[in-house]
Specification:
alpha+beta, 2 domains, three-stranded antiparallel sheet, two-stranded antiparallel sheet, 12 helices, binds zinc ion
């Protein structure tokens, strides 16, 4: 229930699933995994603190659950989870990991593999990030998994009332740009966003919600957009765009969020702080 996002192991697992799907084997040396896994953690993990991208890959490589993962040195000796998570050591040992044979066998079924990936994405990320991460690890899990037992046990019940309530409170308009498209009576392209992610114990509450157009919802979830304690928008200094539509995002910096209807709660500063620390892309190391 911690407030800190720790997506390192889920990201390593997703990367292994992609590799397994592509090659039929999840076996990989630390030397080969370090760069791509470090990059995933940098892109989709919380903003980096002290550890470098490369060092960040060592943590999940050492600590992935041994029920799933077999880690050995160059001569086949087992390496336990008590090994220090140091990249130099992993390289010197020629550490190589592989999902257990019975796990690989289960995942040979594409529906099971897709369900496992969905479960990881659901539990640790947001719906806006899922397709981007799938793309980054080379997974296609768009297939329906409703019938899957894994998928059913994984989902916290999502409150449809939350979506309705948030959209209503913000008058079916994007709180960032004012977009209010509709077809007849039906709003289009406006969504209810959680500030603190639902998968990270963010409550289904108006004080944790914002109505946002699909673009600004995605940019909030990806940490391009952030919120200040006085409820203004900020834009990551890492964000780059050339075309006018992309550059329009810069203009949002400093803009106040639209207010909810009178009597309805503003976004809680506690959730803003969580987003700022765990999601917003800042290059402050
Ligand atoms: Zn918008």
């Amino acid at each position: 229930m911690g407030a800190v996002r720790v997506p390192h192991k889920p990201l390593l697992l997703l990367w292994l699933l992609g590799r397994l799907a592509a090659t039929g084997s999840s076996a990989v040396s630390y030397a080969d995994a370090e760069e791509p896994v470090g990059r995933l953690i940098n892109q989709f993990g919380p903003p980096a603190q002290r550890a470098t991208a490369r060092q960040r890959a060592a943590m999940p490589f050492v600590h992935l659950e041994r029920e799933l993962w077999d880690l050995r040195d160059a001569i086949g000796g087992l390496l336990g989870p008590e090994l220090p998570e140091r990249r130099r050591l992993l390289l010197d040992l020629s550490a190589t990991g592989r999902l257990h044979e019975h796990v690989e066998r289960l995942l040979a079924d594409p529906a099971t593999l897709a369900a496992a990936a969905r479960l990881l994405l659901d539990r640790h990320f947001t719906s806006a990030l899922a397709p981007v991460i799938c793309d980054a690890v080379g997974l296609d899990v768009a297939m329906p998994v409703e019938g899957s037992r894994l998928a059913v046990v994984s989902r916290r019940r999502r409150s449809a009332a939350f979506t309705e309530q948030v959209l209503r409170v913000y008058a079916y308009s994007c709180a960032a740009c004012g977009f209010d498209g509709r077809i007849g009576p039906i709003p289009v392209g406006v969504e209810a966003a959680h500030v603190r992610w639902h998968s990270q114990h963010g409550p289904d509450d108006v004080s944790n919600g914002l109505a946002l157009c699909s673009l600004h919802h995605t940019l909030l979830d990806l940490g391009v957009l952030g919120l200040t304690p006085d409820r203004r928008l900020k834009v990551s200094e890492l964000y780059i765009a050339q075309a006018p539509a992309g550059r329009a995002v810069y203009d949002l910096a400093g803009r106040p969020l639209a207010s909810p209807r009178p009597g309805e709660p503003l976004v809680d500063v506690e959730h803003i702080t969580w987003h700022d620390r765990q999601v917003f892309r800042s290059d402050a190391a």
